[in-house]
Structure formats: C-alpha cells, structure tokens
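Preliminary data (for renewal application), flavin mononucleotide complex.
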Amino acid sequence: MADLTTEFCGFKVKNPVGVTSCDFGGVEKLVRRVGEQGIGWIIGKTVHKIDGPHRWPRPFFYSLRRFGNDLKDTWCCSQMFHNMEYERWLDEELPKCLKTCKELDILYIASCSGIGPDAETWIPFLKDLAERGCKLIELDTGGPHATFGAIDAHKDVGAPLALDPDTAFKVTKACVDAVDVPIIFKTTPQCVNAAAVAVAIRNAGGHAISGNNAFYGAWIDHETGTFYGVPGSMGGLLGRAWQPFSLAKILETTATIPEVPFIGGGGVFTYDDVARHLMAGCDLVGMCSAVYSRGIGVLGKAITGLNKWMDEKGYKSIKDIPDLTKDFMYLRDWKREGPYMQDTTPVVPEFDDAKCTRCGVCETLCPYGAIKLDKDAGTTPVYELDKCYGCGWCCGHCTPNAIVMKNRKTGQIVWNGYGEIADWVTDEEGY
Ligand SMILES: Cc1cc2nc3c(=O)[nH]c(=O)nc-3n(C[C@H](O)[C@H](O)[C@H](O)COP(=O)(O)O)c2cc1C
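Predicted structure:
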C-alpha cells in the first residue's frame, strides 16, 4: 500500500483528501459524519457576522438531474455562510469540532469572512479562531453568493475580493500581519487573471491559496415556465462538469508560484480527479459538491481509489506523483504552422480496420462532413482530404480506439486520443 501521508504548511496530514468549506465542516455532528470516512483534513463552514447570509432559503439545494442525464451531477444551491450565531458557534461548536478532528486525526482549517475589502473587519475573527486553537485559517474570499440577502454596503463580500490583485493584497496583508496562524486565501474560478491575484497573495505574505470556490448559476424550469429553485442567479453552480474550468485556474496559479502551498478543488468527484489535482501541483485536494451529489461514501472511495492507483503506477508516496506544473504553458507558445495554416491539413485520421466497429460515431460527429462510412458495405470509414481539418474530433470520440491522427507526410502519430498531442511542426513548416 502506498503511503498517503503528506504535509501542508508544516502540518502532517494523513492523506491529501479532505472536505472544503461547506456545512459538513459547520457543526461537530457533520464533521464526524464525513470525518469517519477517513479524510485527512476539513475546512470549517465560513463564520461571519454579516446580516443576511446566515439565513438560507429553504429548500436550498436544487438538483438539475431531472433535466437530463448529462446534468446528473449538476446542481444549484442557495446555501450561504454559517447559519449559526457566531458567538454560539465559537463557544459551543468550534471546541467540539476541534476535539473530534483531533480524535479522528483530521487537520481542521477554520474559515471566516469579514466585510469585503475592509481589511479591519477580518481581524477579530482571526484572533478569536487563533486563540481557540485553530492552526490554519482560510479567508472566504471567493464566495459566489455572499451578497445575496446582504445590505448594499456588503456588496463586495465574497468573489469580488478575489477578482482584483490590489484588494487581494490588502486583505491578505492585513490578515497575515494580525495573527501568527498561517492564512489561506480562497480564490474564485470567475477571476480572469488568476495568476496576477495569486502573485499578489504571495507578495502579501499569504501562506497558502485554496481554490476554487463555486460559480454562480441559474436555471429555468421550462415546464412550469418559472425559475428553478430561487428566481435569479444562485450562489453555487456545482458539478463535476466544472472541473476543467477550475483546474485551468488552479494551474495558472500553481505554475506561476509553485512554492506556495495550494488546496485544490472544484468538481472533484473521484480518485482520478484527486490524482489530476495532485499532478496539477495541489498539496491537498478537496471534495465538496460530490459528497452531496453522490453521498459521503465518495470520500472513502476516493482515498482507496487513490491508493490503488498509486500502487498500480508504482508511486510509493505522494511525492512520487508527477508534477505537471513545470510543463504548463499558454497556448500562444505552442509551435504551430505558419505564417498561415496550410489549406490542406498535414494531419489526418487513420482508421484501424480490425478495431473499427462501424458504429458511425465519427461520421455523425465530424464537424466538417469529411468522414463517410458505408455501413452496407461494412468497410472502414474514409475521409475526404479536401474537407478534413485534422481537428482530432473523430479520434477523441472513437471508443474502440480505432482512429489515430497522423502526419500525412512523415507518418508520425500526432495523437492517439490519449495524453498530449505531439509537437509535429518542423522549423520549415512553423514559426
Ligand atoms: C453546500 C455548499 C456550501 C458551501 N459553503 C461554503 C462556505 O461557507 N464557504 C466557502 O468558502 N465555500 C463554500 N462552498 C464552496 C466549496 O467549499 C467549494 O469551494 C466549491 O463548492 C467548489 O468545489 P466542489 O466542486 O467540490 O463543490 C460551499 C459549497 C457547497 C456545495
């Protein structure tokens, strides 16, 4: 069995899988419920003193499952910050949560929110949490919905804080200077300049970054002719489908400042999602909406799945998992044909007659109408060179793996539908 122990901001963690801030970390009975699944860490539900976000509409979870199988894990949510009065939580729940985490060997990370960019409003929470024994504190700076129900003066609470590098710097610096406990800044996937925000957090002395928070979402029930859930855009749009978007933002940060510890998450549902985030430079990987969508068992399954995958790959410890951040690049730097794309594609599909099941998916999905399959004749599909763009769509959709993309001139396999495409452009062809 591989060794899953790892380290985060100087603390030993029994495995990298945990639960990001949500109501599972809000009260002891729920901490225990997910804690007994074997997680290594948990982030508390965001505590605050803002009037509004502690009162959630009931019901507050709206599954989109009934709108199509492709939406089965997708949902919207109008749950906001911690619903319990802050002082009561501090006196009654926090000590119990800390005790249970100690008993179950789980690293507890507190989460709080001041009022937007007003840095001074964050400090009292940090001091309270540090005094009560919290060893790490996350700033809920990326929350998508904190303005819901809040008064106008609180409109900058949540995501707006994580959109602007100057604001991120100011809030992080004030918090880092206020207490001796490591401060984690939480990002939003809605930020277009994630790397700039990350650098600002690092420059302000932030000890770690976590990301991502949820997107905004809205849905309309076409049958009732009304909105679905609450009318308007809701704070959380959740589901595995958002992982590629969140992962891109994470990579922008982890590739830019690999030295800053990172808690990754956003659409993590399975052990391979965890593996993917570890490869993307995350130190810890969090699951949240998956636990609601598929039940608490996803946590234990992700941990055992990760262990089994590591054994199969021969990774003895988390450190052995490859770090892809050093290979991360922006598309503009990829070598391409130049100065213009050639009229006739140099990269074309090649069909393997023995593997092809004649299912016709390639013909149906070819965006350019370039592939023809004669089902009656039972022959392999063919492509028309003057229609083909060399896009790879057929190859990526071929479940029997009967298609590879090849360089017409050299015969080099450019893509087989797995891993990266080859850098096939020569100096003669490219720039
Ligand atoms: C029900 C629910 C409640 C959440 N509450 C909070 C919160 O109080 N503070 C916070 O920082 N993030 C909160 N989040 C965001 C999650 O911690 C996480 O960042 C986000 O959902 C993306 O991860 P996921 O795709 O694994 O759900 C909440 C998410 C959900 C689904």
